[in-house]
Amino acid sequence: MVFLRSLIALNAILLSLAFSGCETSSATLSTKENPRPPVGNVSHLRAGDTIIVTLQSIPDAAQFQFQIDDQGDIRLRYIGNLKAAGKSPSILAEEITTSYIEGDIYRSIDVSVDLTERLVYVGGEVKRPGPIQWSPDMTLSKAITAAGGFTLYAKESGVLLSREKQSYVLSVSLAKDKPSEDITILPGDSLNVPRSAF
Fold first, then answer.
1. pLDDT, tens only, 38-92
2. Across the chain, where does the E strand assignment appear?
3. What CATH number has the domain spanning 50-117?
4. Is the pLDDT of residue 7 over 50?
5. Is the dihedral of CA 44, 47, 51, 86 positive or negative?
C-alpha cells in the first residue's frame, strides 16, 4: 500500500515536471526574437551601391559609373582609391572636388554624385538567387519573396544576414508569425539561405 502511494506520488511529480517543461518550452518560443543589426543612416552610401560621378567645368569633362567595392571604395582617374561608403553623395562630391584641386590636377572643377542603383544579394536555397533591387520598405520576408521564395530544402529559421562585416542568423518563420520580427533590410546587405538537414 505504501509502495502504491509512493508510486502515485512519483507519477504526480513527473507529470507536473513534464507540464512545467512544456510551459517553459512554449514560453521560450513565444519570447524568441530575431537579432537587431545596426541600421545606421540609409541615406549614406554603402558597399554595392552604384553611383554616377560627373566631372564638369574642366577641359576633359566626363561621367563615370562606379559600384562601391567591398572595402567601401571607388577608384577615380588621377586620384586612385577614395572612400565612398558611409558618406552622403553631396559629401563625397565635395571630397572628390577637394582631391582634384589639392592634388593640382585641376584649378577648379564641378563634381556631382548621383545614386542610381541599390542592391541586396540573396543566395543559397531560394528560387532566383542573385542581386535584387533594394527599396526603402524592404524587409527580410520581402527580400526572400523578391528572390522567388524558398526552395523545398531551405532552412527558413537559419538565414544568414551579412551587414558591414558582421553576420546575424535570422528566422523568416518567426518574421512571418510576428511582423515586429521582420527585420529591415538595407542596401548592400547579403542574405544566404542554408540547406535544411531534413
1. 988 888 999 889 999 999 999 989 999 999 998 999 999 999 999 999 999 999 9
2. 50-56, 62-67, 73-76, 80-83, 110-117, 119-124, 130-133, 159-163, 166-170, 190-193
3. 3.30.1950.10
4. no
5. positive
Cα 103 to Cα 96: distance, rounded to the nearest angstrom = 10
Place of cell 545596426: 38
CA distance 2 to 15: 20
Q: What is the DSSP letter of 106?
A: -
Three cell numbers written together for 146: 523578391
Q: Residue 115 — left, alpha, or beta (φ > 0 → left; ψ -120 to 50 → alpha)?
A: beta
Q: Give me the half-sphere count of Cα atoms (radius 13 Å) on the Cβ side of residue 147.
A: 29
For residue 77 the three cell numbers come to: 582617374
Residue 96 and residue 176: Cα distance in Å, rounded?
44
| Phi, psi of 117, deg, nearest 5 | -150, 135
CATH for 118-193 (3.10.560.10, 1.10.357.10, 3.30.950.10, 3.50.50.60) = 3.10.560.10
* Whole-number Å distance between alpha carbons of 106 and 194: 51
DSSP class of 3 = H
**Biggest CA-to-CA distance, the chain:** 107
Rg (the chain; Cα; Å): 26
Cell of 103: 592634388
